[in-house]
Amino acid sequence: MFGVATASYQVEGGWNEDGKGENVWDYITHLNPSYIYNNDSGDVACDTYHKWKEDVVLLKDFGVNHYRFSLSWSRILPTGFSNTVNAAGVNYYKNLIKELRNNGIEPVITLHHWDFPQPLQDIGGWTNPDMVNYFADYSRIAFKEFGGDVKFWTTFNEPKQTCEGGYGDGTLAPGIRSPGVADYICVYVVLLAHAKAYHIYDEEFRPTQNGSISIVIDAEWAEPASNSTDDMEAAERRLQFTFGLYANPIFNGNWPQVVIDRIKLRSEKENFSKSRLPEFTVEEIAYIKGTYDYFGFNSYSSSLVENVDEAPFGEPSFNNDQRLTILFLGAKESY
């Protein structure tokens, strides 16, 4: 398998053409043009919406046999809800898939790569548990419309970026800053949404389509800054808070124990009535566990990690929950 990958917002363009609805990146870059460096946006991007045939030629010339791309939820369901399906959006992806297969390139489809309908964000986005069902509706339509020609599916690409960047530190759309609270709620909802989409495919579509479906997780690898036990434990905490937070419920069941313990400890000291980390029910643990056919992992860099003393108890903080300092390329950040 040799392939390349893209994300809908980063390459498609055509942000408001042929019935496409507004997504969170459209909204935030139009509201605040300086949100992205140089006032850039994805309004045009690589213009794949119009140049998809040229792109397939380039892919073939490059010699790839797999192409992973994401669907724009807002292009297929302009309001985010399944009661209005945009035929032009569906046909765009059908034509792309057909062209890929005609050129010997296997399509690998991602359902969510940060392109999220703004109308759904207006009612809470990934902090609203109703998103589990809305994502299920969208997934079912995608499986029905495209599944006959698609053998590889990904539910979410890099949910860490969606939750930590979108709902924690606010660096990514929708730009919500609620570290240590909304980011954890987001992870909880996203994992349930992933599991529901997996079960829908497994029960309703796999028997006839015979494809595979999973999730793609990203994390920065962590190594201890020294051979001390404290630093080794800190590096492990870093991995569990960034990697295990998303992978452990799927591959082993439930949150990593160190994540549960750390957030509970700090939540109590901060006078919360219960842990800021949502608690899975026994049924939810069983529902999420095992919802994978393969393991998808994006890795970009590594860091050295040092243990630190407990930070003062005050405002909730994803960083303070980890209790460590990251040494990376000469920079020093306390988490």
UniProtKB/TrEMBL annotation:
GO process annotations (BP): carbohydrate metabolic process
Matching SUPFAM superfamilies: (Trans)glycosidases
Pfam families attached to this UniProt entry: Glyco_hydro_1 (PF00232)
One GO MF term attached to the UniProt entry: beta-glucosidase activity
Assigned keywords, A-Z: Glycosidase, Hydrolase
Statement: the UniProt record of this protein carries the keyword Hydrolase: yes
Key word Nucleotide-binding present: no
PANTHER family documented for this protein: GLYCOSYL HYDROLASE (PTHR10353), LP05116P (PTHR10353:SF36)
Family membership: Belongs to the glycosyl hydrolase 1 family.
Protein name per Swiss-Prot or TrEMBL: Uncharacterized protein
